[in-house]
Amino acid sequence: MSCFQMFFCLMAFIILVCNIGLHSGPSKVLLQTVNGDNNQSTALVLPSYSNTRKLLVHGSCTNRDISISQSRDSTSGIPQYIVQIVNTCVSGCFPSNVHLHCGWFASARIVNPRIFKRLSYDDCLVNAGKPLRSGQIIRFTYSNSFMYPLSFKYARFC
């Protein structure tokens, strides 16, 4: 094996090792080099990892399947923020009793308490505790001089 081929194989291995933690699902990659002087080829089979997400099995939803995002609405006056909470789990398990960390959440604009309600400091209830169906989007707008950091706190999963 020439120095170039060894260097190429070593670089491919280093790149592979660095990427292992970023992807899931094993498969194989065939790396092949051809030496132009004597038409010899060298093949190296290395494991590879697919970046596709696997479908979850019934009952295996987790807090990672509750997506929370918010953005500022471009209006004048008191700033408004649009919040979207989505259940991304496809297993048929519908998380319920979803609570978020929300600090002293307050809004100058009334938020429907059946959609989002602060129960106490740093504890807000989503969808009145009812289950979030797969792909369901809970969306509301609130007004305040700053954006409240909202993050998952807990929920009841199947």
Features:
TPD1, mainly beta, 4-stranded antiparallel sheet, Protein TAPETUM DETERMINANT 1-like, 158 residues, disordered N terminus, 9 strands, 2 domains, 3-stranded antiparallel sheet, Immunoglobulin-like
Summarize the structure.
This protein has one helix at residues 3-19; strands spanning 26-35, 40-49, 66-73, 80-87, 96-101, 116-120, 123-126, 137-143, 151-156. With 158 residues, the protein is mainly β. It folds into 2 domains: 3-49, no CATH class; 63-156, Immunoglobulin-like, CATH 2.60.40.
Describe this structure in words.
The strands form three sheets. The protein has a four-stranded antiparallel sheet with strand order 6-7-5-9, with no helix packed on it. It is globular. Helices cover 11% and strands 41% of the residues. The protein has one helix and nine strands; from the N terminus they run H-E-E-E-E-E-E-E-E-E. The protein has two domains: 3-49, no CATH class; 63-156, Immunoglobulin-like. The chain has 158 residues and is mainly β. It has one helix spanning 3-19, and strands spanning 26-35, 40-49, 66-73, 80-87, 96-101, 116-120, 123-126, 137-143, 151-156. The model is unreliable at 2-58 (pLDDT under 50).
